[in-house]
Amino acid sequence: MNKTIKIADIKVANDLPLVYIGGTCIIESEQHYTQSSRDIKQIVEGQGARFILKASFDKANRTSVSAFRGPGMGEGLRILDNVRTALKVPVSVDVHEPWQAEEAAGVADILQIPAFLCRQTDLLLACGATGKIVNVKKGQFLAPQGVENIIKKIESTGNKKIMLTERGFSFGYGDLVVDMRSLAIMKQFGYPVILDATHSVQKPGGLGNATGGDSKFAPVLAKCAAAVGIAGIFFEAHPNPECALSDGPNSLRYPELKKMVKETMAIDALVKKFK
After folding, report:
1. Among candidates 231, 243, 226, 229, which has minimal Cα distance to 50?
2. CA 174, 180, 181, 186 torsion: positive or negative?
3. Using CA atoms, how far apart are residues 42 and 59, in angstroms rounded to an integer?
4. Which of 127, 167, 193, 269 has a CA 20 to 30 Å removed from the CA of 230?
């Protein structure tokens, strides 16, 4: 059974047209985030697709202690709230600790659980208790069958507004691989399944003091996932990835984003035509 989740006026389900969740990896500054969010929204919606903006106010798991982490929670949520209001778009934000959940829920439509934290019971319960949609990124260490216990933790709060996101599985010491069977297995639990196309092409620690990656493969994975018949595609894009303060090697350039949305929408429409 395909569960449908409503995010603002957007309905999300594995048998409905793809939704696209994206933005820059991190809020670099208010001006940069405002303009890039506006540009990315225009690109996605310009293809006739439905769009949800993502944001990160703190990247707590950066490779290096000296890496830029973001503006922090208070300032980040203020910026996010302003952009959300100006663009009239629903937003997703990641939280790292249980105490952050309630405050972030005051601004965000979706609370996102980072992959490394997907089994942290207190964090899952805190996010579930807000009543907001909870998007769990499946850990790089976790088999797709393992999300069932994560689902039960969130459901124990009475919250059944859950999304599950694939973002690659650890392969050796410095690479990730996406097993497309994972998408089909997670779909069996009924909740909307998302592919994180850009984090799935990361090379953890690949640059020594930062994570590397190869963004040219993100559209390849997105198209494969669309052929499975899922609910959405998560991505990160940047006007100039070489200058990005986080995850530049994995971020899509705007022309690449436009092409990816166009192609995945076409595949998705064909696959779901025969459902």
Report:
1. 231
2. positive
3. 26
4. 127
Q: Of 194, 272, 228, 189, whose CA–CA distance to 3 is shortest?
A: 189
Instruction: Give residue-wise pLDDT tens across range 163-178.
Output: 999 999 999 888 999 9
Tokens read off for 215: 């963004």
80: left (phi > 0), else alpha (psi -120 to 50), else beta? Answer: alpha
**H or E stretch at 123:** helix 121-129
Per the CB < 8 A criterion, the answer to whether 70 and 54 are in contact is: no
State the pTM of this model.
Answer: 0.96
Q: Give, for 227, the enclosing helix (H) or strand (E).
A: helix 218-228
- Secondary structure of 34-89 as H, E, C letters: HHHHHHHHHHHHHCCCEEEEEECCCCCCCCCCCCCCCCCHHHHHHHHHHHHHHHCC
Decide if 143 contacts 191 (C-beta within 8 A). no
The string of DSSP letters for 96-139 reads -STTHHHHHHTT-SEEEE-GGGTT-HHHHHHHHHTTSEEEEEPP
Q: Which two tokens stand for residue 8?
A: 């603002």
Q: What does the alpha-carbon distance between residue 131 and residue 191 come to, in Å, rounded to a whole number? A: 16
In this structure, what DSSP letter does residue 173 have?
Answer: T
Averaged pLDDT for residues 242-249 = 91
Tokens of 236: 């990160």
- Read off the tokens for 9: 């006026």
Give the chain's length. Answer: 275
DSSP assignment letter at 260: H
